[in-house]
User: Which sequence fits this backbone?
């Protein structure tokens, strides 16, 4: 009975990480093939899952993590274009 909580946490952590690996866009996320990531997560109980989560949170090697603006109002080019449009509207 006292092993129920650690086993439950392990199963939940492994299920989350394996699902996350399978849903990742890259064929080899963070330089390691997906199948190898799954083996690492399953064979090294908490260390493999922790490694996946740490790399995922840092955003290293993922295509989805871009350094650019995320919304049009954060984009300096778009804001510049808006200012130019406003100046043109005022002139005419």
Assistant:
């Amino acid at each position: 009975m006292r092993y129920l909580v650690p086993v439950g946490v392990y199963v939940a952590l492994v299920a989350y990480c394996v699902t996350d690996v399978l849903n990742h866009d890259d064929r080899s996320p963070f330089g390691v093939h997906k199948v190898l990531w799954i083996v690492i997560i399953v064979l090294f109980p908490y260390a493999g899952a922790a490694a996946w989560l740490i790399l995922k949170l840092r955003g290293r090697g993922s295509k989805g993590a871009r350094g650019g603006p995320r919304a049009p109002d954060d984009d300096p080019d778009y804001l510049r274009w808006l200012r130019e449009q406003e100046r043109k509207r005022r002139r005419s």
About this structure: Residues 4-23 form the longest helix (20 residues). The chain is about 65% helix and 0% strand. The mean pLDDT is 85. The helical segments are 4-23, 34-43, 45-58, 76-91.
